[in-house]
Design a protein that fits this description.
Number of strands: 3
Strand order of the largest sheet: 1-3-2
Oligomer: single chain
Number of helices: 7
Number of domains: 1
Helix content: 55-70%
Order of helices and strands: EHHHEHHHHE
Structural class: mainly alpha
Amino acid sequence: MSLVLPAPIWRRIAASIYDGLLLLALWMVAALVDTWVRDAFGGLPRTRLAFQILLFLVGLGFFGYSWTRGGQTLGMRVWRLRVRRADGAALRWPIAGLRYAVMLLTWFALLLPALMQLPGLAAHVHAERVIIVSLAYSTVAALAMLLDRRRRAPCDWAARTEVVVEPKAAAVE
């Protein structure tokens, strides 16, 4: 039996960047398919909420499938990380969905200060408050991860999961 180590934060960030780029690519394909389908049916109107739900479901499909079928996304596989429940068991879809939703909110909070610099948003009356709240949440989440002995992120706390380092594969002779 091997020792289970919590994933270092730098490895989680590296895997998150990898997976974030994959998610962005999936969202771009979903937007393209959505446009083609709408054009094929005579230019059906697109509502913002319906499009946001589509993008959420595409991401849920990617992360949920990966986490329930082996506990690894492509980025996690590259960095030898695995997500699992606190008792060591694999994730089920409801837990994967909760974890994905909280993870998405955390990513959004982390990226929001940069997004608020866009011309249409920078002039918003509550822009400063939004940035302050976003930075406060991101700072508290990062400090909590650093202080937690299992290096859990907000999505791990909400879903009662943890991310661990996978042992190196034994060399085959």
